[in-house]
Amino acid sequence: MEPIKLQTPLTVEDTARLRAGQTCLLSGIIYTARDSAHKRLVEMLEKGEKLPFDPQGQLIYYVGPCPAPPGRVIGSAGPTTSTRMDIYTPAMLAAGVRGVIGKGDRSQEVVQALMQHKAVYFGAIGGAGALIAKSIVQAEVVAFPDLGPEAVHRLQVKEMPVVVVIDSLGQNFYTLGRAEYSKR
Amino acid sequence: MRIKAEKISAAVAQLCIEANRMLPDDVCAALAKAAETEESPVGRQMLSSLMENARIARTEQMPICQDTGMAVVFVELGQELKVEGDLYEAINAGVAKGYTDGYLRKSVVRHPLDRVNTGDNTPAIVHLRLVPGNKMRITVAPKGFGSENMGGLAMLKPAQGRKGVVDFVTSVVEAAGANPCPPIIVGVGLGGTMEYATYLAKRALLREVGTPAANPLDRELEIELEREINKLGIGPQGFGGTVTTFAVHVESYPTHIAGLPVAVNINCHAARHKEIVLEGEEE
Asked: Mind telling me how many Å the CA of B159 is from chain A's nearest CA?
């Protein structure tokens, strides 16, 4: 099956038609955040403060990249385990974020929030950081530089490969895939 | 015989960089074999991406994974070799240099609760063992926490026996699901005490992928566990498939009449480890 090409920011129409198991190629701007950055971002939302970037229609990529070697825009940059961000994700989706990118399963609360906001959880290839870095054409830190690898980066990506893991109907590709091959 | 701390630091720095960039040949071979046997088309596609990733990392001097890990360093020190300087400081200096010079990610925080990054990926975890002779073997095994977080320990009752061990290990892998980036290598430590079982599970991950355990009881357990785990259907990246694990490695040790400790340490496909044997100089 041909991968679906997506250009960020995404509209509700873009994400609502995606289905678990589909392969997509993402292009445009995405923002990075993992544990510590999420904690700060959600605290800002709770205080009614403005986020360091406009979250409307944006995608958050759970990644803490390696430093950029000379002549490169970024080091290896594969996904980190998403479940650690579960407690923050509903607030981020409510703020306008249209999708998140990581690896591994999500809580029931996140699935509910994805359905409510017609948002999508994408899986990037865990352990393929060097390969994924090739689809990142620009990178800059836009918030929390003191967090080092956990700082919020603004990434420009070109045809970054991802898989729809949980779609806006709440269908989960991990569950579907495992059921097909389980012999227990 | 003696060895200078600086020599140890330089070796550790080099090992940190190489381990993070070069996926070992045994793992590359296991990936290629998995790509042949995996039944799921999506699974095969994921395995081929991991092989492509390893190729890029090797040829373009990039880390295999952005989680370049906490540096776990195994040292076998010949008891006739005298270290000039502080061995632990020498290892940490090497880790700091390797992670800085190699553009590796600094992933260590100074305290589990205040979580301030130490900035140079130190301190390392050092497992020191004295052995006969006058040489020093250093193995650097950077360990990412996507897989490290998914391990587990159980103090089983002796009556639970082999079935109890199989059920526990399988349940740990099942609960881990897609999180540790399958296909995985499963290290199992059996026996000893609580902390020794976890050490054995870690050490089991250093073994060349698929090399059978020496003890026949351990070997039988490895075969059964590999079969049971691959029946789970988790598959590459957790997208469903027949290859969830490449290999299960069991290391055992005598234990107490009242206990059956079993520890599981999971490694993602990036089973990084690189070793060197250093020789001393005449005093």
From this structure: 24
Does residue B163 share a domain with residue B135?
no
Going by DSSP bridges, is the β-strand pair B82-84/B2-4 parallel, antiparallel, or unpaired? parallel
List the single residue in A with minimal CA-CA distance to B178.
A104
Q: What is the mean pLDDT of chain A?
A: 97
Q: Which of A9, A10, A24, A38 is catalytic?
A: A38
Tokens of B134: 């006058």
Cα separation, B242 vs B227, whole angstroms: 10
The Cα A154–Cα B49 span in angstroms is 25
Nearest to B234 among A68, A76, A178 (CB): A178
Same domain, B129 and B169: no
Interval A157-183 mean pLDDT: 97
One domain, residues B105 and B216: no
Q: How far is A108 from chain B (nearest CA, A)?
A: 15
Confidence of residue B141 (pLDDT cuts 50, 70, 90): very high
Domains contained in chain A, CATH given? 4-181 (3.20.130.10)
Task: Tell whether ipTM is more than 0.85.
Answer: yes
pLDDT digits (tens, 9 = 90+) for A104-135: 999 999 999 999 999 999 999 999 999 999 99
